[in-house]
Amino acid sequence: MSSERAPWEFGVEPLPQTRQVAELLRRVTGLLLSLEGEDPAVENLIVALERAEENLKERVPTELAPRVGAASAAEGRVYLDHSRAIGSYDPCFPEYVIKTHGPRATGTVVFPIPYEGPPGFVHGGFLGVFFDCAVQHHNCDLGEAGKTTAMAVRYRRPAPLLTTLSFVIDRESKEGRIESHAQLFDGDVLLCEATVDAVAAERSVLPVVDPRRSTA
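Given the sequence above, the corresponding C-alpha cells read:
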C-alpha cells in the first residue's frame, strides 16, 4: 500500500445486516435458479419477502436520491461507500478477495449461478463489472482514484461458474491519469483481460456525504 496516501473512502460503511443479507440473497437466488419445478418453500419465501418489503418501506426515506453534496440536507437515502468490495453488501455485484502490493494487486473471485450467461459460464457483462470494481478497489487502496473513463475487455476463454479464479492487476499512474491492466485466470489459463483507464480525482473537491442518521 502507498506510504504517501491514505486509502480512498467515499461514503458510509454498510451495516453488518446488509452484508449478511447480500450473501444470503446471492445463495438463495442460486438455489431458485436451480429448481426443477414449483415448490412450497418458494411460496413461503414470496410471502416473507413481501412482508419484509412492506416493513422496510416504513423505515427508509421516501426520497431515494443519495444524500451527497447539495442533496445532503434533503430527506434522501444514505450513500454507501462504493470504493471497495461492493459485492460484500450488494448481491448485484460480484464478491472477490483482493490483496494490494503497491502497483500490483492479486486476488480470487468465484462467480455463483446468478452470474451465468452461456451454460456453466459467466456472462461477459459481469466480467466487465468485476474488472471495474476490482481495479477501482486497487486504486482506492493506494489512495489515488477517480471515475473510470474507458474500459476494454478481451475475452479469451469462457470463465467457469462456481470455480475459484485468480486475478492480477498492474497499474501505472502519470499526470493525473491511471491505467490498469487486469487479467483473470483459471489456474494457468488466461480467461480474459481488461485495460481500465481512470482520471485521478482531488479529495478536496469531493462533495460532502451526509452520515447515517439515528433511527432512535
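The chain has a mean pLDDT of 93. Try to locate this feature in the C-alpha cell string yourself.
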